[in-house]
Amino acid sequence: MNWTVIWLDPPLNEIARAVALAWGTPESEVITRAMARIELLLERDPANAGESRAGHGRILFDRPLTIEFEVHDDARTVVVTRARYNPAPGSP
């Protein structure tokens, strides 16, 4: 059964900035693929994605992205609260 994934504006904007900076380079595709994998993991089994943190919090690393999110079992909802772009050396 799928979970609802809600991306707050700040993490979504962070990823959009990263894609915009990398536009037209292979790194743009790397970011897009990581985002798709993250979305799929969160929709399918967020309680086992990444590492646990305090309360409902979890963190997930899928290079070049790191996201922090909360899992709310009662509403079957995942809220992405933070995202960071961690470019490889030499990336835009």
Describe the SSE topology.
Blueprint: E1 4-7, H1 9-22, H2 26-44, E2 51-52, E3 57-62, E4 65-72, E5 77-85
Parallel strand pairs: 1-5
Antiparallel strand pairs: 2-3, 3-4, 4-5
Helix pairs in contact: 1-2
Outline:
The protein has 92 residues and is α+β, with helices and mostly antiparallel strands. 36% of the residues lie in helices and 32% in strands. It has a domain at 7-59.
Spatial shape:
elongated
Q: How many distinct beta strands?
A: 5
- Roughly how much helix do the residues carry, as a percent range? 25-40%
Q: Radius of gyration from the CA trace?
A: 13 Å
Order of helices and strands: EHHEEEE
The fraction of residues in strands falls at: 25-35%
Distance linking N and C termini: 38 Å
| Count of DSSP H/I helices | 2
Largest beta-sheet details: 5 strands, mixed
What report would you give on this structure?
- The protein contains two helices and five strands.
- With 92 residues, it is an alpha+beta fold.
- The protein has a five-stranded mixed beta sheet with strand order 1-5-4-3-2.
- α1 runs antiparallel to α2.
- It is elongated, with a radius of gyration of 13 Å.
- The termini are far apart.
- The model has no long low-confidence stretch (mean pLDDT 93).
List its traits:
alpha+beta; 2 helices; 5-stranded mixed sheet; elongated; 5 strands; 92 residues
